[in-house]
Amino acid sequence: MENPFRNLPSVSQLLESPPLKRLAENFNHQVVVDSVREFLDKVRDRMSKATEQVEVPSPGELATKIAAWFEDERRDLLVTVINGTGVLLHTGLGRAPLAQAAIDRIRDIAAGYASVEIDLRTGERGQRATIVERLLRELTGCEAAAVANNNAAATMLTLSSLAADKEVIVSRGQLIEIGGSYRLPEVMECAGCRLREVGTTNKTRLSDYEKAINDQTGAILRVHPSNYQIVGFTETPGVKELVELAHRYNLPLIDDVGSGALLDFAEFGLHDEPVVADSLAAGADVVLFSGDKLLGGPQAGLAIGKRQYINRILKNPLMRAMRVDKLTLAALQATLNLYLKRDEALREIPVLSMLTTSLANLQFRANKFASQIQHLPAIATAAAVEDRSMLGGGSMPAQHIPTWCVAIEPKELSLDQFSRRLREHRPAVMGRIARERFLLDFRTIPARLDPVLGDVFEHLFVAKS
User: For the chain, which domains are there?
Assistant: First the structure.
């Protein structure tokens, strides 16, 4: 039986073809050679597993396929996405989009050197957190602040700094897991603490905490269960009660509030989200929260509170491994600056702006866009419909926000094919599939992108598929 691999052209033969010659002129020669070998290995593997005879492409055809594959493999994986999913803090899409002021600040700071750890008044080395500490003091009432690269890091740093080799008391109903294997018991283990569970899943009383306190106790930790709810027959002590108990026994009370609300989101119709300043006012020693969720800034984890505890966090050797760079600090500073003027924050911070956009505005835009695309040959129907958005990012999982969407039925493509075409466009477009239709939620699409979205549809669906 003839060996089918003998019909495959050699690497050197393929490299002489015009498509691969052009690649070798524009890319590192060895990279192109390795890619040709990799592609041929894939072809051989498919041929060896085939149950029928495989027709081998001509050298020219094979070279064209390799060149196309080479280019496709080098497409940017991190691309701009128009978020029509209706999830405001979509973790897969990078959570909170930044305010224009934060983007401008990043551009300014990225272009050159910056006073990241230099006090320009004294010329001496300073702390990175100082850049945002004053703003955080003004906005929350804290004494000091530390900034890590996310809230998981801030939590680990705090536990490691305040309760290493000690027990940390936590309610059983607050032993959270938040995606990507972030589980509180394991975080504690990594931080060198010992978990002391108290209470039951639905009920934990103050007396449960007090009974667990002993000479091995390092801290009491309260965690806001932001991505789930326990309802019905429940009981849990408030921050103030836990603060009084902790201080009676000379222990720090650490309050992980999660999403980082600097405003009361009840005014937007969303309830039960703790406000950072309220926790500090109740006496919490350290409050932990994210920068890229409800705060609306860059990915960061903030630990704020009493200076005696924050100083211990800043001196932790792990702080260097988890610190943020100048670009994060620039974006965080610019975002916090906006909160000094409430109206400006609501207008300029995208997550707040999306929450406060009126239904009338969304309905108008959805109707306009539906009218714009319904004539396209590849669209069977397009209509504005009422629906519900979600905050996402592990925040308020059971609460929804009224919205308006454009519901689309493709003419010949399946919903999955239609969705994939939009995802693979540049800029990519993502929506959601519900009730046998493709939905674009206009609450998560900035009005400035409506014309861009229209151009995408005109480009992709102007001809029958």
Answer: 8-73 (no CATH), 81-90+355-461 (3.90.1150.180), 100-348 (3.40.640.10)
